[in-house]
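Figure 2 data, in text form.
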Amino acid sequence: MTQPATNDYLQTALALAASGVPVLPLRVGKVPFGNCRRCADNACGGRPNMKTAGPCACPGPCHGWAAATTDPAVVDSGVWRRAWWRASAVAYHPGGAGLTVVDLDDADAVEWARTALPPTRTVPTTRGEHWIYLGRMRSLNAVRPGVDIKSTMSYARYLGPGTGSLTALPDAVRALADRAPAVRPAQSDVRPVVPVGGGECRHRTPVFLERGIAMAEQRIAEAATGVHATVYRTFLAVLSTHGRCGCLTDSHVSRLFTAAQAKGETARHCTDAWSNARTALGM
């Protein structure tokens, strides 16, 4: 199912907000708009990894999923209107609407769901389907091959109303999160080396770095296949752009490692990929 034309995003968002679904705009690449200067570097009190960000007094669509709102005055405000015209998609916060989206990323995952999960409202996606249940739970990526859970502290693209009636969130979906391996931070013996800098800083504003890290997290999170290669290429891209001036911190690298481990990578593999990317760039 295709998205509405760009000049229809605002109307779609207003309709969803009126029905009680919190909405936000997405940029090209299916990522949220970066934080404004007021919210950059945790200046407003939000968390820099956008997992528990906001609310704050910022008038713009900052803080990723936490920016999602049902307030039509915000959705149709000046700064949000400019974002809608630059947007490539409408997104919503499932947990904020009391929903859980089981994101089935390929045909194999869809076939599995048809035998393992109760039927509910379904929405076609580019490669698979969204199965939407009534009820909220914690969000988690890669609970099984090709399956992500999007509910609290997450967002999903709006791809249309779908078909079928909403079914109450079943134990079978909750069990997927219970069985998923815990994401643990890298141990001290595999701590990544953070570049110390010395090169020219190309960051126009602090938002540039924040956007780069957020986009890298999203790129890793959306990897359906070839996760090892995606993690390495993403680390390489981050280091190539941000690694020579000393702006990267342990916190930034920890965010990248956490995103990779959420896709099933081990701490050791993350460190090896980071080291290999540094070596490739002569760092």
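Caption note: Strands lie at 23-27, 31-32, 89-92, 99-104, 121-124, 129-134, 140-144, 147-150, 156-157, 167-168.
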